[in-house]
Design a protein that fits this description.
By secondary structure, the protein is of the alpha+beta class. The protein is built from nine helices and five strands, in the order αααββαβαββαααα. The protein has a five-stranded antiparallel sheet with strand order 2-1-5-4-3, sandwiched between helices. α3 runs antiparallel to α6. The longest helix is centred in the last third of the chain and has 40 residues. The protein is elongated and about 85 Å long. The N and C termini lie far apart (84 Å).
Length: 246
């Protein structure tokens, strides 16, 4: 990693500003359970919170293949999208597992096709920092500046901290995504089960609500009564099936 340390670290880092950035990022992603939504929030927060950065993007790979892309500026999304070509600062950062710095694209000889597109979109400087998410997903966060003199040591340090923090938060998002998928599978299995499915149908009829909401009502009742879900379902079905006295 080529980290310019000619300026004092704490003078250039902006400790309070960086802490505010990481806090805002945490608040924005703490409850998100969708990876694409998390990426979209990540790049917006980074763009708005890091001075001198015109736009921010994220390039993600899953099992070595393109798995997602996000850009704070839709007009510059192609800079992070590997469908436009794999020879990019983001891919170099991912392959080398180190931060890649291109402070002046007018003097940049690497990634010629990408650099030409970037200059055409008003980008004059870039930093790409690798992000480790989990055993399946890796990526890079990309900071872009509209001036060749905008990127400083502070931006390099912020990019490094941002990548580390984003990796932890995105790993948590992926975990919540997997938990939600498992919960959906469990819900589907329960809805197909005889008595539970019947009870859900009763609640849907009574309340005029969809199946997931009816199942949630059934779960709430089971929790309040401290009895198994299936037993609550059986009681409900028996109650509605009981012949009424004339």
């Amino acid at each position: 990693m080529n980290l310019d340390t000619r300026e004092p670290m704490f003078d250039t880092l902006g400790v309070l500003e960086t802490a505010a950035l990481l806090r805002e990022l945490t608040a924005g992603l703490i409850a998100v359970a969708d990876f694409d939504e998390a990426l979209a929030r990540l790049v917006r927060v980074a763009r708005d919170a890091v001075p001198g950065i015109d736009c921010c993007g994220f390039t993600a790979l899953r099992a070595g293949e393109p798995a997602g892309v996000a850009a704070s500026d839709a007009g510059r999304a192609e800079l992070d999208d590997l469908r436009h070509g794999p020879d990019t600062p983001a891919m170099t950062a991912i392959r080398r597992r180190e931060m890649i710095i291109a402070p002046d694209l007018d003097r940049e000889a690497r990634w010629p096709a990408w650099t030409g597109r970037a200059r055409g979109l008003g980008v004059r400087g870039a930093i790409s920092a690798p992000v480790d998410v989990d055993e399946q997903v890796i990526g890079a966060i990309n900071l872009y500046a509209g001036s060749a003199t905008a990127l400083t040591t502070r931006h390099q340090l912020v990019a490094m901290l941002l990548a580390e923090h984003a990796g932890l938060l995105l790993a948590a998002v992926r975990d919540r995504e997997r938990q939600a998928a498992r919960a959906d599978q469990l819900d589907s299995a329960l809805l197909e089960e005889g008595v539970v499915g019947q009870a859900v149908g009763v609640i849907m009829t009574q309340r005029g609500c969809p199946a997931p909401e009816a199942l949630a009502v059934l779960r709430t009742a089971a929790s309040s009564l401290d009895i198994p879900l299936r037993e609550v379902a059986e009681r409900l079905v028996r109650t509605v099936s009981r012949p009424r006295d004339n």
